Amino acid sequence: MAVQWPLLIFSVLLGIASGSFVFLGIGELTGRFRKIRFIAAVIILACLAVGGIASTFHLGHPERVTHLLGNLGSGLSKELFVVAAMGIVTIAYLVLARKDYPGATKALGVIGLVLGIALPLVAGASYLMAARPAWDSFTLPLMYLGSGLGMGMLLMAGLVLLKGDAEEEGVFALKLALAGVAAMIVVSAAYVAWIAMAPHQAGSRSIARLVSGDFAVAFWLGVVAVGLIAPTALAGMTWSKVQKDAAALTNAQNLAAWMFAACACSAVGAIVLRVIMYGVGTSVESLIYR
User: Fold this and answer.
1) Domain ranges of the chain
2) What is the pTM of this model?
3) Contact, 19 vs 116, CB < 8 A?
4) pLDDT tens, position by position, 125-168
5) Which of these, 119, 190, 175, 154, lies nearest to 262 by C-alpha position?
6) What is the DSSP string of 63-115?
7) 5-289 carries CATH number 1.20.1630.10
């Protein structure tokens, strides 16, 4: 199947937004990350806006986006409604970010956390169909969620180290980033395993394409080396440096750069894995026409 670039861009950007809001929501629950709330909300809103606009180009005629209201059960409709809900919550959170309304910001942070988990799952679930065996698994929505957690938490941890209270909150932020990376690795591996185990095996959707076939370079270099190993190494190096020398958090700009680089690498991996996802998403004609 051809790569649907508008939807791919949409899914990556919503993943960053979702993972970032989960990070902020955890911060609200634990009384942390006040200094980065405003700029983080701006980043989330920008990702949602650009991603939402990109997704409309999948329709062929973006001006016809209102036609989705006539098919509220479609996957794209559900995605855009959740995006709209998160956008509204983000705007409200942005307005209150610099105010002293702890109860309201905490409530919005928790709502954002819930939406941040729901949005990638809704986006991934829209691909589940028996006629495309390589997509028809809960591991695909989980892959969307895990990559979002990895990207968003790495980005937000870098922001804490750069603009936040790094000395007080840096260690906790790094713990969340490491948890996000771990989630990304586990669910990416689970989705690749599903490709190998999916029913109705055929050459076009075989794991051999990833291991040694036409997707081998993209998989081993783009997904494994750049998308998984590099973020793990960079986050691990940052954690190790902080554990060996707590004073590293007093001037954490270099550590922040490592986290931003890890986020960029994880984004590359997320993009490449989605390209592979489309590539192996061939259909079983007997299931379509039966």
Assistant:
1) 5-289
2) 0.92
3) yes
4) 989 998 999 999 999 999 999 999 999 999 999 999 999 999 99
5) 154
6) GGGGGGGG-TTSHHHHHHHHHHHHHHHHHHHHHHTTS--HHHHHHHHHHHHHH
7) yes
